[in-house]
Amino acid sequence: MRKKVLQALFKSSEDIVSGVSLSEELGISRVAVWKHIKSLKANGIEINSTSKGYSLPNKDDLLFPFCFEKYQEKIHFFPSVSTTMNTAKKMARTGINDFSVVVAQNQTEGRGRLNRKWISSEGGLWFTLILKPELPPPLAYILNFAASLSLARCLNALFKIDAKVKWPNDLLIKNEKLAGLLSEMETEGDMLKFVNIGIGLNVNNNPKKDIPDSISIKNITGKHVSGRKILIKFLGIFEELYHKINNQTISHQDIILMWKENTSTIGNYVRIETFGKKFEGLAIDVDSTGALLLNTDDGQPKKIIYGDCFYKENN
Questions:
Q1: Is 243 left (phi over 0), alpha (psi -120 to 50) or beta?
Q2: CB distance 149 to 157 below 8 Å
Q3: What confidence tens digit (pLDDT) does each residue in 72-86 have?
């Protein structure tokens, strides 16, 4: 019933919904409505109560499944998790449907590439896609490129933000980090069992206080924006590419080419860190397998398959 009360407030076209209206719509007493509202508030849902009724001041920030239009059957919302990646891994192993989405209001142990800590401050958008493509494991890399490309296109369409993808899969605004992506997969025989792609996007948070070279959409636009609307738009763009990849109506080379049109990595002097190794050089290309090609300081070409990429001045 609490969910029904919240859903009625969310879907109402009125700014304020009276207790009488909720009572009649849900078939419960006004006292019961008041008790459910009180319980929702105790669970962290911001609801304004006045003599005229109730309202949701931050309706656009709600991430419950019923808020997601055609994707509501795909959304699995959690107020707080250790990481959406951990939760998604457990769910993927239970036979959950392809293209399911684990989204959380808060992560307590967010992590990035190479097990680095990812600070998931309040106001960001933290979610993981659970994908079950019909692909052999060596081709799973293309999903990361498709996801980061889709997110860049999403933000440009919604906010006219010229977000650039950084190899292997971060999003930058003028070299400040806006989003990070992380992928994990499990195989069964010679095919993929699932690929999970975790995405952390700075939306209404202020990440600069923890990471100086980072930025949020609110920092850029100067206003509070809807994380839910961003997720809906992203899912629509990525779903189209995902189906084309699955149906083999778009080549992996085409995905890479589109990604390269949106990247700031090629032409930059970079430092690449892997487990225990570091490489520096000029990024000259990303090949059809997703590997980064460097001209290193010693003049030798280097193909980097995996690692974390940092831009730096060429001394």
A1: alpha
A2: no
A3: 999 999 988 989 999
User: Could you tell me the pTM of the whole model?
Assistant: 0.91
Instruction: Report the Cα–Cα distance between both ends of the chain, in Å, rounded.
Output: 64
Report whether CATH 1.10.10.10 matches the domain 2-57. Answer: yes
CA distances from 70 to 65, 106, 116 (A): 10, 24, 35
Tell the residue number behind the tokens 């209206």, with chain if given.
Answer: 21
Answer for the pair 215, 175: CB distance below 8 angstroms, yes or no.
Answer: no
Assigned fold of 269-311: SH3 type barrels. (2.30.30)
Cα 266–Cα 167–Cα 304 angle in degrees, nearest 5: 85
Give dist(CA 250, CA 231) in Å, integer. Answer: 23
Structure tokens of 109? 């142990």
Domain boundaries defined on the chain: 2-57, 65-261, 269-311
Q: What single DSSP character describes residue 310?
A: E
Question: What is the per-residue pLDDT across 7-44, written as a single tens digit (0 to 9) for each?
Answer: 999 988 888 999 999 999 999 999 999 999 999 998 88
Q: Is residue 132 helix, strand or coil? A: coil
Q: Does domain 65-261 have CATH number 3.30.1360.110?
A: no
